[in-house]
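Same chain as my last thread, 214 residues:
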Amino acid sequence: MEFHISRSLRERLDLNDLLFSYTGNVVFGNVAASRKLAQKLNNVRGTEGDPAEVANAGALFAMGLIDELNHALIARYREEIDPAVLTDAVRWFEAQSSPADVARMLLAFTEQFPNMAVYRGELSAAEWLKGTSDGLPNREAALEELMLLWIANRNPAFGRYRELFNDADLQTQTIYQKVTATLPDYFVTRPPLSPEAGAYWTRCVRRSMRRPIR
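reply #2:
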């Protein structure tokens, strides 16, 4: 899994680095890439006269870390509680709309928020979606990434960096809005996290949403 940034912003800033990735039980962070991204954002924003608009490398690093910790939580949930949660999610959303609509949404997401292999042209988005990564079908991995994209866009703490992961085009071009609106309906049908883990995660989310990441 990777911390995804929109293709349009990558192309605008000429970014070809991987900021964060989660493999197995390890989160890898690229401090140098976070600094490079902050510098390029500041160059584009023209922040000399407005300190409130200055992009902070530490904040970008923290956002990437939060994203990958979310992936780690989902991976643990799949391993220990509900191995079929993503497989069944794809089928559930296909039943709510249609397989073709879900396929178009996942393709649009992968094109607009490509992983590094797709962004660098090693694979097309369609080719990547047909494959697997670490035993997980990439269609399911894309749905997981899409869910975390939705969470990031609705987290007020991430607001000043929303240009990295703005989901406006997905909302207008696909069934993304319908899918994300019904995520709670799907997950209520799945086994819950343990009370301890659920309470801990709720506290973390509430803390992150109290104040913006600077």
